[in-house]
Protein 1
Amino acid sequence: MNQPTVSSSPYAHNNQNVRKVMLQVQIAAFPALLAHIYLFGFGIVIQWMLALTTALAVEYFMLKLRGRPVLPFITDMSALITITGLVFCIPPDAPWWIVVTGSAFALIFGKHLYGGLGYNPFNPAMLGYAFLLISFPVQMTQWTMPVEFTQHTLDFMQSAQYIFTGHIPDVSLDMYTGATPLNEMRTGLSQGQPITDTLSKDMQTTLGGLNSWAWINLAFLLGGLWMLYSGVISWQYPIGFLGTLAIISFVFNQVDPELYPPMDVVLLTGGTMLAAFFIITDPVTASTTPKGKLIYAAGIAVLVYVIRNWGAFPDGIAFAILLMNIAVPLIDQYTQPRVFGHKR
Amino acid sequence: MNLLSSVIKLVAKFNPAAKRWMHSFNGGVFPKYNKSLSASQPIRKQIIPERLILPLQQQVGLTPEVKVQVGDKVKKNQLLAQPSKDPFKALSVPVHAPTSGTIVAIEPVTLPHPSGLQDQAIILEPDGQDESIDNVLGVDGSIPDSPLALKAILLNAGIVGMGGAGFPTYAKIPNQAGKIHTLLINGAECEPFITCDDLLMQTQAGDIIQGALITAEALGAERIICGIESNKPAAIKAMKQAASNTKVEIKVVETVYPMGGQKQLTLELTGVEMPHKAHAVDVGMLMMNVATYAAIYHAVKFGEPLTSRLVTVSGLGLKQPYNMNVMMGTPFSALAREASPKSELNYPLVMGGPMMGFKVANNDVPVIKTTNCILANPPEPVEMQMPCIRCGDCMDACPVNLLPQQMYWHSQAHEFDKVEKLNVFDCIECGCCSYVCPSHIPLVQYYRHAKSEIKEIHAEREAVELAKQRHEFRLARIEREKQEREARLKAKKEAVKKQTSKSSEATADTTKKPASAAAAAAKAAAAKRAAAKTKTSQSEGQETNKVPSARMKAIEAAKQAAQKSAAEKTASQPEESKPKQADTKSAAKQAAMMAAKKRAQAKAQKSEEPTDLTQKTAETDASKKEDARKSAMQAAKAAAKKRAEAAKTKNKETESLSPDAATEKPETDSSGDKRKAAMEAAKAAAKKRAAAKSQNSDKTEEQIKPVDTSAEQTETDTSVDKRKAAMEAARKRAAERKAKQQAEKQDSDEQQENPQ
């Protein structure tokens, strides 16, 4: 691409650019990052740095391979958003090669092979996550236990040691890892234990009335609301997603509270808020028409609920998003807005 | 409402898009207006430049014709160029001298147009006296009582839409009073930097209001609404003051680009969303710019043509931006120099605002009637274009509710049919999408390109269709000619065969074929009568005189036979009255035929040729069965036809007499050896059909052919002399028919034109 000159109007611009948009998203993720560090330790920071290094290397080589200018595209920050989304989904103390292969897969197969930024049909972060979940299910489901169980988190060096070597001297690691609440509920149900029992047993230790998972979700909500307020993301995504999820979970919980978790648990566990504000709002892979955005978000919510309750995975956000990504062209086709002066 | 607006204002501090909830159309953007640069300055005194360049083409439409010569001394307001054609058919407006001086050249100059093309212009060297002709339009200052009277004044004053589009104002106004119920005044001026309308409203509010009142009076409009953006408080105050005690309503509208778009402002002011492809006039509304109304006022009250206008000279590259009442033809560079540029003007100036303006090809281009702003913004580093990330910001900003990113996607892939399906032609090219695009994609440029490509594709498709039709017609014609040639050859062979078998039976022909003989006789009689009655039929008479005596005898005999047969059927009427009677009979027939033909024509106009053709063939069949009386009648009809033509009456009767396939065929039957004539008739018919774009021309051709060949078979036996004479007559008739056909065609053309 040669240096373009504006040859026709408009000669004015609002000075927005792709980099700024991506940066705003990154900034909005900071509250969640801080909460994560507080609740789960420094594991995520190491993971994030590993992912960033991988991303930079992968971006450089892929851009070189594709014969594209490296500097403008490596600094467009889109890879940063991808790895941020991915890192939040990976257990904080998972082995180092998990995040490296996941990020590399996400960027190479999720983005560059389709033609780079703007051309990928699937959300790269979710593609990477799905790849990891299918390939390494054990490592991906062993989450670091939050601070309310462990009383103190691993420090930076301990985390690094654990991530790179797989063990920490003089520390019993069983204490630090376990299943996520969504996993617990699933296991409990399979053993004939009602949801209500699982919840009351496993989640009594709380922090200010809420457990760690809820706190992480609230941190995402905070960043998401800021993005909504500053106009970075469209309101249709979170409203459509959270609204639908809330309605479905409320209805099913009313039908059978023993089998279906209550609404607040559904909304504040797993990656619900992460998905609502950071993942499904990725414009490249989402529907773009106003109505289409709502349908897309609602579709993801339905699939998430279906996979969580009747599927084979504890959290179905990645698969739900990838499935709805496929449907995007169709949704866009049939939700075109009424053009000024035209009849419907 | 107040609570809502204050909440929105709070949100808008971080997210300017929130302000979009405040107005009625979708999207819109909130650029930096920079209006105070020039609005804070008083209007400067007019400058008289060294040269005025007056392009002939200043607006949409045709170029007017130059009325002056090089070396002529002209005064201010003098007419320099005038529309060459009827301006009510082809858009064109005159050009007047903005000041007194000498015409020094008429030469091509670069136009202030996006294309940067050159065109003829009158170069005027001002003498500095500024002598003017008062009331050059010769108005009496009274309000025109009809739209037409107003239109005439506006045309003569050379007024065009001064908001930017430059559509001749007279052409916007409907001819009938009462068609416009609401007159809209566009004082929105939503483009950044431009303040000329703002200052015009501040200084000439009365003129604008009066201009609107005059227009409303002439058009019979009941309401007048003026929309002004909220960022012009001084203009709003002045306009409200001027509009007090009049029926003009001043409405303050939100400050959002593109509020000044015609459809957007109409929706905002009246709540009416103009339908797709409809013009404002179609919904009973007419919107004009404030400057246009002021010009209307000056034209109607004082007879002043449009020779100057308020222009904003602004931009970040100028130290002292200003507004000035600038003479048309003043070069941009002269005006920019007056504003003391910060650096040398080595970058192109922009005509219009930054959102919809365009860079001029040459900074010496002149101010024209549509120049509202001259913008000097130094070039800024442009950010690199990134791939589209489908963020949808463009869609949220689009005031027409299009899907810009999808149109871009398809334009880029050259899938222009899909771009068209996404309604690219509704795009007003306001530039909002490009303005907000985080990837810095020049979206509007893509749509302009797509539009021109689509137009080209359509033109090409039409051309291909036409070529295909022509080719198919040519193939059909070649095939037909081939068949005709074969038929002719066959007929000749058969004739030779027959002649060898019954060589001496020529005299028996009359008894054998009473039809043809009788027809010939009747025709001869009719011709004689026609010769006696009219001048034009003299040639026919002469021809009969020329006929050799042998043939005359045969004709006489045939005549008698015909008279006999006619007498038998008409109960022995006097011989003299016989043709007349036939005439009356034929008149009845003609009436029926006329009706049939009219039906056919009506159907043909609806392009339902098949029925037309079947009707014709049916008539042909019927006519084949007719006997001698019929042919006699036909002959008489032919005579009557001639009479009618001589009289040159263009009434219905003439039209009914004009031949079509039905009337031709019996004649073909009746006359002597009229192979050639039949051929010609067939050809003429074919031509006619082709003109009507008949699709089954081949079919009818085949249907005609049997008639021809049978006629040939029956008539090859007649004597050579007779044949020749008959041929002569037939040729003549054919020529006449052709002439008549043409006349008829013209008639029908006129008829077709009239409804439109």
Protein 2
Amino acid sequence: MVALADTTAASRAMTDRGQLARWVMLGLAAALILLCGFSLFVGATGVSPVALMIDLIAGRDIDLRARVVIMDIRLPRLALGLLVGASLAVSGVVMQGLFRNPLADPGLVGVSAGAGLGAILAIVLGGLLPSALGAAMGYALVPIAAFVGGWLSVMALYTVATRGGHTSVATMLLAGIALAALVGAVSGILIYLADDAQLRTLTFWGLGSLAGATWGKVLAAAPLMLIGIVGAPLLARGLNGLALGEATARHMGLDVQRLKRLAVLLVAAAVGAAVAVSGGIGFVGIVVPHLLRLSTGPDHRFLLINAALLGAIILIVADMIARVIVAPAELPIGIVMAIIGGPFFLWILLRRRGILEM
Amino acid sequence: MLKAQDLTVLLGGREILRGVDFAAKPGEITAIVGPNGSGKTTLLRALTGDVGFSGDARIEGLDVARAKPWELAARRSVLSQFTGVAFPFTVAEIVHIGQSAGVRGAGSELTERALARVGLSGFGPRPYHDLSGGEQQRTQLARALAQVWDPVGGDGPNWLILDEPVASLDIAHQLEVMTLARDFARAGGGVVAVMHDLNLTAMFAQSVALLALGEIVTQGPVDDVFTDQNLSRAYACSLRVNTVPPAATYILPHAARA
């Protein structure tokens, strides 16, 4: 009888955490929907989406300015924020699962930098492409170049930092620094070569912002980001297995090489596209997974979906702060995220001093 | 049947195993013993497909070098040494992952039964990282056990492949784990275990492969392999094989030179 009571306690505890994760998922989804609505009200001009809706429904003449502000400025910006936030957070979870380390964040280890180099190359040298090809690729050129840059840097990082399934955190972080330095140098050369219009684009892009959002940009980058966001949960069981060690994962029947290849591609797609459209927004990929593991545990079946939701929420909130804090001007969202994320990251290190010895 | 022929393993240009023939039958515990650096763990890692080798290794007809990971996983599970866990999973979650990551549908009931089987009833909700080394070892054993729960499946016997399953366990838990392996074998499953403790091996194993310097010294029934001469030669020190009434074999260290 005692054994029976104990074992039911075991299963209850396991399902408890799963149950909690499901409730958190619902809560996050509800919060995200509310925030999306709310964010359409927030901005430099006092335009209300409700008034616009009422006008629309009543069949009255629509205030043209309101229509432009809501439909062509705030809505694409909101869509971009959703996608970028979810992409960065999900990429963080996948990277951490792949490297089996909670510090592996695309921003910290140079993947964002690699993607950024791809984007800069496309911005500065895109004009040199045969004009037919350039026109055909249009807005998609920068995201695709960033995807390739991100992919190459994850591959480089993995080759340098991982031996026999074991990732050295120190090597990983140092390799990230080396990658970032290399990218910085090449970017410097490209910036030197750039003309005035390209320079403006580059500077604005580099600060990390959602301000330039247009439907064209959203549609060009959305497919790659969606591949990452929707594809990642399919790797959940695999990433759970990988957490027990590469050899053990293989013993349990996982095709580990395939899993790793897919994980790298998903991260590169999501981070590449996110960086291409929003520049350097850091810390989402480390803050979000960490908070979720603390509250609902590391099970990737819940973690990946919840990270997408919470990542979107955090980015939309940060973007609203960016829009109102120095209104009527606005702060680049990268700066807002760094102000929130920097201290948070230090707090993680303080709380878990042993993290580098893992 | 688990059968390996002419296994040679090269690591870093050095021959760790040289032309090893090895066989294990279901229904028995087959132990792999030998001194440090004799190639025991390498032989096990070849049998699980973790190191490349020349030669041929098959588990129930499945070619270890060529079979898909999930085909092998449905046939055998593996308990390795030094299994690090990356994130703060609970004990129950780890056992559950063992069933769900690879081959079969997962049931939390099996998780509970596997934990109870290794003496960890009630440990399910505990964080894995808070456990002692021995408790972590038994959690991993429960994970491996849950993967091939039935000693004999629909298409033949299943296998447990254990690398030093009783390392870091106290004497009571050593007996408990070896009894579990024996029960699995008695029910028709196969067990291959790398062992350090010769007395425990003599008590529980039916068949033994004795390795030294990357080669098989001899393989066969325990009483044939465990002789003064075989053991003293393999371990390069003087060992005496004795029995205590009623006829149980034990080995006492005798002298530092053969």
